[in-house]
Amino acid sequence: MSLPDLLPVRPFIQPAHGEVILPGSKSLTNRALLLAALADGPVTLTGALFSEDTHLMATALTRLGIAVTMNPAEKSIEVVGCGGKLPVESTEIFVGLAGTAARFLTALCAAAPRGVYRIDGVPQMRKRPMKGLFDALISQGAEIRYLGEPGFFPVEIRAYGLRGGAAPIDASESSQMLSALLMVAPLAAAPLEITPVGGVRVPFVEMTGQLMADFAGIEVERTAQGAYSTPVLAQGARYRNPGRYLIDPDATAASYFSILPLVTGGRIYMPGLRGVGSGLQGDTQFLQTLARVGLTVCARTDGKTSPGFHDAPPRLLGTEVAYSAPAPRVGVAENFNAFSDTFLTLAAVAPLLSGPTIITGIAHTRKQETDRVAGMARELIKLGQHVVETEDSLEIHPRPLRRSVEIETYGDHRFAMSFAILGCHDLDGSGIPWLSIRNPGCCAKTFPDFFDVLGGLWEQTHSSRNA
């Protein structure tokens, strides 16, 4: 669906009811693409995400000489791995605004035995944190020449492989930098001991470690001193090829439809979505927050156990989220540091909650696609809310919502999707749109058909109620 520059959001006039098929996880897809590229021979990723971020990653891998075949209709990607050695030793790579692609590809290029690679992105990407990763790679023997402001893109990388040994890294501004170094560590000449400096958000690092175990049988160990250590592939050895790898639905994308029943009433079922602690994605922690706000969250199973596992719990089918009035919808105090991509989802609907909502642990999001803390405060104030902003937090005090508001997205997909959910609230009880989204097409970064899915759910809800 072609989207206009300004999109009015159609409110739900009935409680939302239906099934939402989520896109594949961006975090899992881009990690799996990198690890598949390092494997020996073809790997098929199923349930993969097709979006700007994953397209940029796949395109960059092809420029490095790795064959990537994308099949959007089947939601599958085939990657013919290079066995740990990049076929192309000199090329230019464009990463757009994709932080995962930028960090993962930077580490991949620096770990090559030899080569010269230039990497750049859009102007916004040139402002995103990279220095911690650059410094770590330089300490491992890479030469990095800054073609603009030091510590940022664009850069030219001259690769000589990784030495191994001690590798301190400041990944406090983005755990993706630590994940990037971890995934290429087995290619080093000697084992790496990677020590985070200044703290790191652990869930995404744990996700990386699990994928490394799935793809290569490589166990990432955490020392008592907090360092991550990885074994090195023996001379001539290859990353193991898993053949096929299933990508779970995106837990961050799920946050928008998970919170929708709080806005409209009703219930939403999301097939394949794992609950807290049962998958690789830290953003499933958002489901616990929703339960505290007032939603009912439960796992659906088929009532059967896997063959040979008679004491195991029934097999997961998906997750259902529901809200029924007059259950209270309450503001909460929540530290979002470990699952910060979802803080905007809660902040956007905070005007509908009783009492203040206090969101902390989000200072690092000021250096993402945009300054998410300042941008969220600005748009909520535009909606008539009282907002207290600090470097690391937002305190949102509900006030009556203003009508005819145009939400600025700052080119950030998460602003568009979060506020679209707020716009589903039937503010006047008339079903007339009262909130519009500027540049809704920015959702293409991670969820290209978000508004199609939302519109389809509107149709499911109202056709089933009127049948």
| Mean pLDDT over the residues | 93
Major sheet description: 4 strands, mixed
CATH superfamily of the largest domain: Enolpyruvate transferase domain
Task: Please give the CATH class of the largest domain.
Answer: Alpha Beta
Low-confidence stretches: 305-311
Tally of alpha and pi helices: 12
**Widest sheet, order of strands:** 2-15-17-16
Oligomer: single chain
Number of strands: 23
Radius of gyration: 22 Å
Q: What is the CATH topology classification name of the largest domain?
A: UDP-n-acetylglucosamine1-carboxyvinyl-transferase, Chain
Instruction: Tell me the strand percentage band.
Output: 15-25%
The backbone outline, from C-alpha atoms, is: globular
Helix-residue proportion: 25-40%
The span between the termini is: 26 Å
Category by helix and strand content: alpha/beta
How many separate domains make up the residues?
A: 2
CATH architectural group of the largest domain: Alpha-beta prism
Structure overview:
The chain is an alpha/beta fold and 467 residues long. It has two domains: 6-23 and 248-466, Enolpyruvate transferase domain (UDP-n-acetylglucosamine1-carboxyvinyl-transferase, Chain, Alpha-beta prism), CATH 3.65.10; 26-223, UDP-n-acetylglucosamine1-carboxyvinyl-transferase, Chain, CATH 3.65.10.10. Helices cover 30% and strands 23% of the residues. It has helices at residues 26-38, 52-63, 99-110, 131-139, 175-184, 202-216, 251-264, 286-293, 343-349, 372-382, 413-423, 450-466; strands spanning 6-8, 16-19, 40-46, 67-71, 76-82, 90-94, 115-120, 143-146, 155-159, 165-169, 192-196, 221-222, 228-230, 244-246, 266-271, 296-301, 316-323, 333-335, 357-360, 386-389, 393-397, 405-407, 435-438. The strands form six sheets. The chain has a four-stranded mixed beta sheet with strand order 2-15-17-16. Strands 4-5-3-14 form a four-stranded mixed beta sheet, covered by helices on one side. β22, α11 (413-423) and β23 (435-438) form a beta-alpha-beta unit. α2 (52-63) packs parallel to α3 (99-110). The model is unreliable at 305-311 (pLDDT under 50).
